[in-house]
Amino acid sequence: MPNYVIRKLRQPDDFEAVSLLVNMIWSEPTTAEQLKEVEDKIPPGVLNYNEDGALIGWDRPQWVAEDEHGQVVAYAIAWRASWTETGALNHTIVVNPEIRGNGVGRALYAELHQWAVDVKASCLIDSIRETDVRSVAFAGRRGYVKERHIFESVLDLESFDGGELYNSINEAKQAGIRFVTMAEEPGEASERKLYELYKTTHPDIPGYSGTFPWFEEWKKWSIEQHGVRPELIHIAKDGDRYIGVVTLQQNDQTEAMYHEYTGVLLEYRGRHIALALKMLGVQTARACGVPYLRTNNDSMNVPMLRINRDLIGFRAEPGNYKMVRNLRLE
């Protein structure tokens, strides 16, 4: 590695180079400004240990590899939020494809792995594109196993004809369900009702682990995310009760929208309320001139996959493997 130096990321100087790297592996592009916006939301890391000695708290160290010309050619981040599963660390590593195979990725990973060992993490979690055979093999050689498969799906709106699917909206209304957006019901009282809906439905997502963030953190990372606007949050109501939600997030570069969240209370499932909410989302996206909608679903989330692919017609795209390395066995 004589031509490369591994160093800590410098904020905000490195964000432009890092955005170019992560855009090579992320489904939707980001910018240096958006990366900075995320970092500005996060206070300095505070890691700690519970009564059993397991890692808790939050932190997100980041490293880059710089070549002899001062160019950032690889990037790594390890992170956990305070609500992340006890002991776990998530991470991402990306190397410019033009220099893969020369040891930069190995050196960067070694730095990240040593940090994880030093803070006594119990496992490392990575999300790798299923089509990235080299990265999957790289992880496998280091003891990672495939724990879950996250499918990605895309709906091309220019050619989409919802047909009778839109009837689900009127059917829900006839059954007494009302639909509003957060733009129509602004304010903290509505936000807290929505928070409780998210908190109640989140554990039902296959593969969900950890705890749920408190209200202020949830708000920061859900309805205040870049690209989420009040008119993009569709809520189903039974009386004054929030019983279902679809939240959309728009990307500035592609103008496409992402289904950031879909949830319906257990006792209201099986009544096509999720379908009605999704079709309201489709209507909103089409009215905004959006070219396509993107979503992700765990392979075990059969009901949502059925709605997205079998009923609405989302096109299957290559997804991601959740890869886990158990550090307790080392």
From TrEMBL:
It comes from the Bacteria. SUPFAM superfamilies: Acyl-CoA N-acyltransferases (Nat). CDD domains: NAT_SF. It holds the Pfam family Acetyltransf_1. PROSITE patterns: GNAT. One of its GO terms (molecular function) is acyltransferase activity, transferring groups other than amino-acyl groups. Residues 4-172, 177-330 form the N-acetyltransferase domain. Coiled coil: none annotated. The keyword Nucleotide-binding does not apply. The keyword Acyltransferase applies. Keywords: Acyltransferase, Transferase. InterPro entries: Acyl_CoA_acyltransferase, Bact_Acetyltransf, GNAT_dom. PANTHER family: AMINOALKYLPHOSPHONATE N-ACETYLTRANSFERASE-RELATED-RELATED (PTHR43877), GCN5-RELATED N-ACETYLTRANSFERASE (PTHR43877:SF6). This is GNAT family N-acetyltransferase. It comes from Paenibacillus psychroresistens.
